[in-house]
Write a structure and sequence with these properties.
The chain has 274 residues and is an alpha/beta fold. The protein has nine helices and nine strands. Helix 1 (18-29) packs across helix 9. It is globular. The structure holds NADPH dihydro-nicotinamide-adenine-dinucleotide phosphate (NDP). NADPH dihydro-nicotinamide-adenine-dinucleotide phosphate binds next to helix 1 and helix 7.
């Protein structure tokens, strides 16, 4: 029942594209307030404008307050400053969606990775070839950013005795595949952190959820192939990937369960993947 989301405030990292942007739009339509965080200010502004329009169109009276915060979650200081940048009327955040994430692959022939991405075949080795900056970028964003922001908001949630942390993991955090060692390691870390947090917060009203998507067509593969959109498209050849709104709908559903229900984890595949 999405009426539970009326007037709630949701903070979403990585809200400038893909799953984060689609999630912001759905919460806007559901009558929530949304704080959008990412590095690209212009892209954030477009999503926020679309949220305003979607809220208006929905005709829902509650919610409709939107704020954008330009921040790199890989940067410790910038993460620490997010709370202070939230407009005072949106300070009481109800749901934190840790969605910002990135994937980059080694410099050598990344076409070889198309098959393992889908089928998890063995025998492709790229661990020795990945740039150190990519290793650091993925860990700083997917893991450290998520951990630090969670630390900040769990403190807030404890003080208010309510709240919900929703972390974006991945199928890559359940089953490692050849060629994706670093990304898989970051998502296994997310899963371990989520599981631990869930147990630490048991018997409190604070909920903890991990969303684990399979292949979703977003800007993710464009980032993966460093802006090469044609190459990005080939990842999905012969299959029908999920779209960002498929995952956004699950996030909305998870956040709108009755307060005593905690969806601990959710694995979502397109029908072509298993
Ligand atoms: P997109 O590339 O479309 O979106 C990623 C978002 O994260 C962008 O808004 C980007 O914005 C933001 N972001 C990246 N790095 C940083 C950073 N350092 N600081 C702040 N924001 C950052 O990809 P998706 O929507 O597909 O990915 C969202 C999440 O879903 C990720 O955690 C990803 O691992 C996970 N996922 C995706 C899958 C897929 O197949 N697409 C499968 C499984 C999980 P900006 O560049 O403006 O900072």
């Amino acid at each position: 029942n999405v009426s539970r989301l009326l007037g709630k405030t949701i903070l979403i990292t990585g809200a400038s594209s893909g799953i984060g942007a689609a999630t912001a739009l759905l919460f806007a339509k559901a009558g929530s307030n949304v704080i959008l965080v990412a590095r690209r200010a212009d892209a954030l502004k477009s999503v926020a404008d679309a949220c305003v329009a979607a809220h208006k169109e929905s005709g829902v009276a509650q919610g409709g307050k939107f704020a954008t915060i330009q921040a790199d979650v890989a940067d410790k200081e910038q993460v620490a400053s997010i709370l202070d940048k939230i407009p005072s009327d949106l300070r009481a955040v109800d749901v934190l969606v840790n969605n910002a994430g990135q994937v980059s692959y080694p410099r050598s022939d990344i076409n070889n990775l198309l098959i393992p991405l889908r089928r998890f075949v063995k025998g492709i080795e790229h661990i020795g070839d990945i740039a150190d900056a990519d290793v650091e970028g993925m860990f700083a964003t997917n893991v450290l950013g998520l951990i630090r922001l969670t630390q900040i908001f769990v403190k807030e949630f404890k003080a208010r005795n309510s709240g919900h942390v929703i972390n974006l993991g991945s199928v890559a955090g359940r089953e490692a595949y050849a060629g994706g060692g670093i990304y898989c390691a970051t998502k296994f870390a997310v899963s371990a952190f989520n599981g631990s947090l869930l147990k630490e917060l048991v018997n409190t009203p604070i909920r903890v959820t991990e969303i684990q998507p399979g292949m979703v067509e977003t800007e993710f593969s464009i980032v993966r192939f460093r802006g090469d959109t044609d190459r990005a498209k080939t990842v999905y050849d012969g299959m029908q990937p999920l779209v960002a709104s498929d995952i956004a709908e699950e996030i909305l559903w998870v956040a709108s369960r009755p307060p005593h229900v905690n969806i601990a984890e959710m694995l979502i595949f397109p029908v072509n993947q298993a």
